[in-house]
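Open question from group meeting: does this chain pack into something compact, or does most of it stay loose? Before anyone orders reagents, we agreed to write out a predicted structure and look at it together. Recording both the input and the output here so the notebook holds the full record.
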Amino acid sequence: CVFKEAEHIVQVAVDDFDNPVLSVNNCPPENFLQQLSNITLNAEKFENSYVKFVKNPDDIEDILQSTMSFTHLLTNVIVEGKATSNASPNIELGDQLAQSCKQLGLSGVNLFKVLQSKAPENEVLEVFNKVSAEISNTMKIMEILVPNMSQDQSQKLGDIIERELKQMDIDIEEAARKIQELLNNSKAGDSGMKLEVNSKILDSCTDLMQAIKVLVHTSKLLQEEIVSQGKGTASVKEFYNRNHRWTEGLISAAKVVGLGAKFLVNAADKVVSKQTKFEELVVASQQIAAATAQLVIASRVKAERGSEKMLKVSQASKRVTEATGQVVATAKSCAEMVEESEEMDFSKLTLHQAKRLEVESQVRVLELESMLVKERVKLAGVRKKHYHLAGASEGWDEEDLAA
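Structure tokens returned:
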């Protein structure tokens, strides 16, 4: 079982945590912060994969990938957390970091044990929440350990976040415009099945981009609420300075969303022009959906409980997930339509190919006719048996049945 193997891997990392050999290792805090950011996103993905697996136990690919990815990141956090604590100039905070990382490892071991026990879903989700809480606690300790940036860095960071959020909006608007342009061009120049396929593909992409625009808008409103509630008398840029890890997470998410929008447009363009397969569009839609999920997670970290704006962000995120699913379903459906159409296209057959196909079709017809005759004989026999059984149950005599 993959959960048992994952438990063993994490347990080994926890057992080695107090090994004196590791006491001489050092790790830059920036590296460890990156690991914490990665596992924060990965933990939520792992939890979502588990929920999907519970609903559909036959679909194991996603849960297998998520399990191994989370296990790898968790062991890295345990080892690098210990190394980072060794480099801390503040002994007390270093000890707190070490204990927090060890506790996170123990929570991970417990999670995999619970997963193996096939406990009820609500109990497993509670353990997932405990793991996420340990990650958050470790992140808080690191935010205290990492020196605050200078005022000049604050000014620069504030400028970067504003620029990246603005650029993200531009990329999304441009992507939506190009998809609409592709749709208009297809309606003007295509016909028949090509027009039908392209229209379905581009309509689903348009719906996805609209859902993403709503999500980005609601996320920005939530971010504004977070800043206004948290900055107090400080300026917006000072707030970004005090919460630079959160700010950098937003910057990273904004960049990924912008790139995802461009990737989706390029994939849609290639699909309608038959330069690539439908699978590329599926990947592109899933990537931009994952990017927007990263944006939601970055926003959720500091959102107040019960925030109305956070609720709207969650609703918008679900709509993006639904729209992504529609793009995937449409791409698969259109791929089948094109494949069936190509199978029935005889216009490019050579004389030899036509003769071979004719013979193969004749053989198939004879096979089907033979199967049909056998099935009719079988049906007649079943009907006769059913007639006799029904007659016997009704008390008919042999003369009635013979008649």
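Observations to bring back to the group:
The chain has 13 helices and no strands.
The chain has two domains: 2-119, 152-347.
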